[in-house]
Amino acid sequence: MLDREGYRANVGIVLLNSHNEVFWGKRVGQHSWQFPQGGIAHGESPEQAMYRELHEEVGLLPEHVQIIGRTRDWLRYDVPEEYLRRQHPTRVHRAAYRGQKQIWFLLRLVGLDSDIHLRASEHPEFDAWRWVPFWIELNSVIEFKRGVYQLALSELARYLTRGIKMQELVWGSPLDLMQSFYSKEGSVKDAKEGKYSND
């Protein structure tokens, strides 16, 4: 379902291990890596959708994880029309569709690495995975999602800086990053929609 602005409701998942490294999944048959994410079905809450996607894409159950936090508001990104045509050449895309709006969840794995099963569903999203530093290399993220990834990690990092010394920062402290987004030219809405990237 699309909202009035043409965005489909979605959840994103940042899964941590005990070293504050994050789950990084390789998309099936591709050389691109990303966090688990997926659409919110009609009648689902974001939390219900998160648990469903977590099981479908990573094979984990609610008892395997602990919710640490979530983003306060929706974060949006636009999907370029040329990307849609390249990925789905036979599908007609409604002009109203612009992209995704996401609530991001930060989870802690309380189970074992062996609890992760990429083939828990009939249509796996990932064919490989690894743990990587929390401050991921943004250049490894597809370009039109980078702004949302940067905003999501920067907002969620506040939960980890409470009494926990994070690993050495790669691209800035969470508070400094969020402040820089909102002080740049453009509206707060532009920042939330991920229109600023880390160049």
TrEMBL record:
> Which UniProt key words apply to this protein?
Hydrolase
Give residue numbers for sequence motif Nudix box: 38-59
Cofactor dependence is on:
Mn(2+); a divalent metal cation; Mg(2+)
**What GO terms are given for molecular function?**
mRNA 5'-diphosphatase activity
Gene3D superfamilies found in the cross-reference section: Nucleoside Triphosphate Pyrophosphohydrolase
Signal sequence residues:
none
Q: Does the keyword Hydrolase apply?
A: yes
GO BP, sorted A to Z: mRNA catabolic process
Q: Which InterPro entries match?
A: Nudix_hydrolase, NUDIX_hydrolase-like_dom_sf, NUDIX_hydrolase_CS, NUDIX_hydrolase_dom, RppH
Listed GO cellular component terms?
cytoplasm
- What is the stated purpose of this protein? Accelerates the degradation of transcripts by removing pyrophosphate from the 5'-end of triphosphorylated RNA, leading to a more labile monophosphorylated state that can stimulate subsequent ribonuclease cleavage.
What does the sequence similarity comment in the record state about its family? Answer: Belongs to the Nudix hydrolase family. RppH subfamily.
Q: What is this protein called?
A: RNA pyrophosphohydrolase
Origin species: Polynucleobacter paneuropaeus
What lineage, starting at the top, does this entry show? Bacteria, Pseudomonadati, Pseudomonadota, Betaproteobacteria, Burkholderiales
